[in-house]
Here is the input.
Amino acid sequence: MAAGASAPYGAIEDGLIAAKDGRIVWVGARKDAPAFVARETVDCGGRWITPGLIDCHTHLVYGGDRAHEFELRLQGASYEEIARAGGGILSTVKATRAASEAELFTSADTRLAALMEEGVTSVEIKSGYGLEPQAELKQLTVARRLGRERSVRVRTTFLGAHAVPPEFAGRSGAYIDLVAGPMLDAVAAQGLADAVDVFCEGIAFSPEETARLFAAAKAKGLPVKIHAEQLSNLGGARLAAEHGALSADHLEYLDEAGVTAMAKAGTVAVILPGAFYFLRETQKPPIELLRQHGVPIALATDANPGSSPLTSPLLVMNMACTLFRLTPEEALAGLTRNAAKALGMHNEIGTLEAGKFCDLAIWEIERPAELAYRIGFNPLHARIWNGQ
Ligand code: DI6
Ligand code: FE
Here is the structure.
């Protein structure tokens, strides 16, 4: 399948992809192909080829796990209650601060491998479980190392404003000063982040604090993203759009003003069905409004220990269709074309077009809807990254 074509999924029958030095140089129907002198030809045996999947929102690097909180929740405690009692994100912060770089690398590597086994060729990884300068830098350093040592593109996002750390309890404004000041300075000086993110929510940071951080990010030339409207509507998505955000993520409580602002700014809506499912939320993101206003919809795992311990992009596609009524075609675009936009990488990845990286997933399927249709089944035949 390729971008721009008019068939469903942009599908090309009996297609041919030519690549050189890791980039696609030609895509189309084999009958239209110019004569190539190929060093190597791979016959995919009639299988489907899609762009490699892109997981544009993950928290893959962290210490410990939260299986015990899962048990507490099954005994009646809510996610917000656990967070307010010092559990939740803060229990992962403790474990992440205590972990060595090597330990963080090993546990994240296992989760990354699970994503790659289902065709992921690019992944975004956020910090946000350190919440102090050294520990945030440690998370980002590990994320960058994953990108150097594994055959996957890694984009890193500084999420120092994920939660208020215990040292700043009740003083979120003072903590934002640290995040937007010395912490961001260090992250930018070491070139460890491609974007800046914030959790704008009653249990985290206010719109005013968010705006302060965005201004600091802009001064560093870093694009911004937001976790917004997940548990309530604080108008975070609209605020982010007004700051030219690449994406606003979660969005269950998003209203039409937010949708309009996103459409105007070209901000991508990143929908995270794993967190919706795992927290047993009932408020669904306004998919129909997003469609009506032409806001691109991306999907991601949100892989994290607290609200979405999920490392299956294929299950994300299925959940987006069953829970939110996306079509399988929208779901695939959500993990390819629109995910690339959410990372600001739409000129490099996300569709099969000449000039982009040759990142492919080759599937043992009869039709592309199977990717979203099956549950717990992985039809990946092969994964090509950077032309290899
Ligand atoms: N929203 C979420 O769903 C995750 N972070 C966020 O801002 C939850 C992170 C956690 O519970 O550890
Ligand atoms: Fe998240």
